[in-house]
Structures are given as C-alpha cells and as structure tokens.
TrEMBL record:
It holds the Pfam family Ub-RnfH. It comes from the Bacteria. This is UPF0125 protein SAMN04489707_100578. InterPro entries: Mopterin_synth/thiamin_S_b (IPR016155), RnfH (IPR005346), RnfH_sf (IPR037021). Gene3D superfamilies: RnfH-like. Belongs to the UPF0125 (RnfH) family.
Length: 108
C-alpha cells in the first residue's frame, strides 16, 4: 500500500440478520461518500451513515482503518421491544428478580 492511500471497511445491514462488509482502498483525503461509491454496494442515497458508530455527514474525511457504517431505519421502537421481551420472559426470569438470593426479600 502506498503512503497516499487509506483503507476502510464499508458495512451495511440491508435486512435483519444480514451484514455486508466490503474493504476498499482509497486515495488520501477521501470522504465517506467516496468509500460508499467505491464499495459497489447498492445503498439508498438518503440512508444515514457513520464512522465507528457515530453519525457523520457524507462529506466527513476518512482516516486509515476507518469503519464506515450505513444505518437503516428501526422497525420497532427499542422501548416497546424491551417491554414485549419482559412480558414473554415473565417477571421471575428477568432483572433483579432473576438473581434473588434464596430467602432474600423481593427486589434484592
């Protein structure tokens, strides 16, 4: 690899349980949009993206070894999903109640 190049990994999850990763080599001074174009992945133009889990605009500069991530919209509100999981598991199998000492008070 020449001094004037950088490597980045472009990651996207088009559907639940499906992850696509492509490693790209770009010239120094490249931006997030350049990495997305070089990846060859068919991604929506308006999809939000980020570097290492932090949202950034598409014109943000890349550094060598960056992980460019493309995010998709949530299908379920995380709070609702947690409530539904709690109902399925039951109160005795989740949270503080799951780790209760034998003979201990409820909630401790």
């Amino acid at each position: 690899m020449a001094e004037m190049e950088l490597r980045a990994v472009v990651c996207a999850s088009p559907a639940a349980g499906q992850v696509l990763e492509v490693e790209v080599t770009l010239p120094a001074g490249s931006r997030v949009a350049d990495a997305l174009d070089a990846s060859g992945l068919m991604l929506p133009l308006d999809a939000p993206c980020g570097l290492w889990g932090e949202a950034v605009p598409r014109d943000a500069l890349l550094r060598d070894g960056d992980r460019v991530e493309v995010y998709r919209a949530l299908t379920v509100d995380p709070k609702v999903a947690r409530r539904e999981r709690f109902v399925r598991q039951g109160a005795r199998n989740a949270g503080l109640f799951a780790r209760r000492r034998p003979g201990g008070k409820a909630g401790y």
